[in-house]
Write a structure and sequence with these properties.
Helices cover 66% and strands 0% of the residues. The chain is mainly alpha-helical and 85 residues long. It has one domain. InterPro entries: DUF6364.
């Protein structure tokens, strides 16, 4: 669903942006939408990647586990055996 957005920008910037869009064969609305999509997707991906340490990022996807694998259960079992509980 498309929704209208009103932006307030300097007139010169708008004129330059319209010329640029026209030269690229695109609408200014399409370019703005693509820019917003790019920065929001990049931000979400960046946040997800920053949550993992570089060492863990390298290991991501290396091991394959079954659908019944429970990280929490395995972690709790390891803690219990380590601490003798």
């Amino acid at each position: 669903m498309n929704t209208k957005l009103t932006l307030t920008l300097e007139k010169e910037i708008i004129e330059q942006a319209k010329k640029y869009a026209s030269n690229k064969g695109r609408s200014l609305s399409e370019m703005v939408e693509n820019y917003f999509r790019y920065i929001t997707e990049s931000k979400m991906q960046s946040v997800a990647e920053k949550q993992l340490s570089p060492r863990v990022q390298k290991l991501r996807g290396v091991l394959k586990t079954g659908s019944s694998f429970s990280y929490k259960n395995n972690l709790n079992e390891a803690k219990d055996s380590k601490h003798g509980i």
